[in-house]
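WP5 quarterly update. Target: Oligosaccharide flippase family protein. Source organism: Corallococcus exiguus. Length: 505 aa.
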Amino acid sequence: MSVSPKPAPSPSFLGRAGPLVLARLFTAGLTLSIPLVLARVLRLDEYGTYYQLFLIATTLSYVLPFGVAQSLYYFLPRAEAKRPYLGHALLFVTGAGVVAAGLVWFFLGHVAAYFNNPALMEHRAALALYTAFFLGSYPLEISLTSQGKTKASAVVYLASDAVRSGVMVLPPLLGFSLHGMMIAVACFAGLRYVATWVVSLRGSTGPLVDWKLFKEQLVYAAPFGAAMFLAIPQQNAHMYAVAGVVAPAVYALYRVGCFQLPVVDLLYTPTSEVLMVRLGELEREGRLEEGVEAFREAAGKLAYVFLPFAAFLFAAAPEFVGAMFGQKFLPAVPIFRVSVLGVVLSILPMDGTLRARGQTRAIFASYLVKAVVTVPLLWFGVKHFGMMGGIASWALAEVVGKGMLLIRVPRALSTPERKLGLTDVIPWRELGQASLAAVAAGGSIFLLRTGVHDTWMNLPTGFLWRVLPLAVAGLLFVVGYVVGLYAQGVRPWSALQSLRPRRAA
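Structure tokens (predicted):
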């Protein structure tokens, strides 16, 4: 009697995120170049105007999709006929894009008056077109990732981010300034919108619209969409509040202080997306009890990256801001150090877990509380402490919101046979090991700065000399962090290798 061979164990589900991580890693440098190049080729007031234009576009682009595009992560892994869900998302965001363009066209004058920046009106048409098309193309990568096509999604991320970086950087470098850049990004968004329809629907089956399924999709999306309606304005409220009380040139300093390297989006977003798909698969297969292990695995791997990253940015803030943006932006260092808290708060993929389990109302509740908390915090903070009050208000509100999400995760991952508590879902060992190593490595940078401060101050001018202190601090930190992990018995490459793409045997 022949015996069938046992199937080879499947690789960690996080291996699926590998292509997305690699694609974003490749384009992260290009994306990072945008604000760095513009900081050098635009006047300080133009640089502030650039940030204000994209603050408006980003707010509308994340609020108006109302969670319909994100609902694809929930429905597509469970659906046989995928075309209706894709069609609903594409049509909905197209309509939302038209609404966004109308809002920009009719209300940009009021926003310009509030920001005390009439230069915004010079870009009204380009901003309206860019916002409409970019919002309409929102489901592009989502549609591929939610169908398990992570390699295709990675290719799209790669191409889209590369072209976007080029059209934002080249016009100012060629002397077309901010106006030329806005026209270029509007054209790019239009091409991306066309590509979204072609790529998203390719190979799908079923009718384009099914009103019964659309109602089901909208009911699922509504709580999350309402949460975004609160969350995005709340997250950006400190930027609007500060923009309303300072000149565009000073606002440029504040936005540099709020700047974060794309490492969080590079790792958190694809990891959270793949976790959502994995939880959907486990539910369909009747193995939901394995969900808590998937959550802990994802959070543990993120902890080994985000904790040291935050510690390095906090410790090396003067070197980082000086090297990346120039010495004229050094007043932004205290604001930058507070904003680093956002990296730490991204370790636990809580919102993705709750969305995968259909608990979008919990997300809405957390964002509602954050919005309520933000208003008095901003009023008091900006009035009495200016820009530092603005960033501190944001940080406190984020802690409150993340705490509310965290207390709902154990219930979302529990099963009738196994009730989980808060201690069951947090990867305590990984958090402890990463924290000890990161704090020790960060302390070494403060000691280095104390010993060589005069040397750094007397370095020759020029970009390479400005980067030298950051490079030395980075090398010292990496060595210290790796040694700290090894001292605790952790092999860094082994801890992170599940994020690289792997094939099942």
